[in-house]
Amino acid sequence: MSGFGELYEAVLGGNKQVAVESTQRALDDGVDPQIIIDNGMIPAMAEAGRRFENEEFYVPELLLAARAMKAALALIRPLLAEGGADRAGSVVLGTVKGDLHDIGKNLVAAMLEGAGFEVIDLGTDVEPERFVEVLKETGADILGLSALLTVTKPAMKDTIDALEEAGIRDEVKVMVGGAPLTAGYADEIQADAFADNASSAVRVAQELVADLARDQPGNRPRQPVG
Ligand code: B12
Questions:
Q1: Is the shortest distance between the CB of 69 and ligand 1 below 6 Å?
Q2: Are residues 175 and 193 in contact, defined by beta-carbon separation less than 8 angstroms?
Q3: Residue 175: strand pairing partners
């Protein structure tokens, strides 16, 4: 975190204004946005998590840290998107039903946009039916599901089941992520892929789009239905 002490402390301490100013200064100095995320923001959230687990932080402190991180990330997200070259594919993304955690999902969205993906971000606490509806409307290539709670992991399976029921399971690749997940769990619920961080999410998404093109050569790019 060398050089990012102020940003780290601001996010950890929930000081939104300093977090934003410090991020803006780093950007003005020409620091790569990805370095700012990796060296300032993620370590601060990791430390917030550690303190929460040790009961040194409670929910209000976490909320303040999350708010500071989100405000700082908002400055970076458009810059990552600018870097995106050709359209790499489209992703419907959301945190599953019952789960309000969105920091990791937002990072994944920012990185995907940066790699040229079109991202349709449905936010948090998203019902399976809503995912189905938007996938039908947009004909997106990938569904990205995030869950941070052990109790909301089953909502990923419910969402995959809803895709089956709607008859669109074969038309979309499902990628899952979030701290409590493992590749084994992704297999168990028959997701197509798992990624444990935002950078690998981009690589995995690129592979999934390539798989989809192989699976359905006559059907690329897909058109929205209904
Ligand atoms: C911040 C936080 C909160 C904030 C969330 C604010 C926000 N806007 O997101 C608030 C305060 C609201 C919160 C609330 C709660 N939280 Co909370 N929270 C956290 C905390 C500290 C950090 C999560 C985080 O942002 N990490 C940083 C990001 C960058 O990492 P990440 O989310 O893992 O995402 C990365 C990867 O997982 C992956 N990824 C994530 N999503 C996706 C999606 C796809 C498609 C892919 C490919 C990859 C991917 O890429 C991301 C970027 O690299 C964690 C502890 C921890 N160490 O994880 C607890 C934690 C998740 N919370 C926990 C709990 C218990 C709760 C509450 C129930 C607390 C309470 N008593 O009210 C509530 C639940 C509210 C709800 N219904 O969702 C527990 C969960 C325990 C469990 N196993 O179920 C944890 C683990 C803390 C703990 N050890 O007790 N929380």
A1: no
A2: yes
A3: 144, 193
pTM, entire model: 0.86
> How many Å apart are CA 122 and CA 63, to the nearest integer?
20
Residue 92 Cβ contacting ligand 1 at under 6 Å? no
The band of 190, judged by pLDDT with boundaries at 50, 70 and 90, is very high
Q: Specify whether the backbone of 168 is left (phi greater than 0), alpha (psi in -120 to 50) or beta.
A: alpha
Strand partners, 90: 118
Report the SS3 class of residue 58. coil
Domains of the chain, each with CATH number or no CATH:
5-82 (1.10.1240.10), 86-219 (3.40.50.280)
* Protein residue closest via CA to atom 40 of ligand 1: 178
CA dihedral in degrees (59, 16, 114, 206; nearest 10)? Answer: -10
C-alpha 49 to ligand 1 mean position (Å):
8
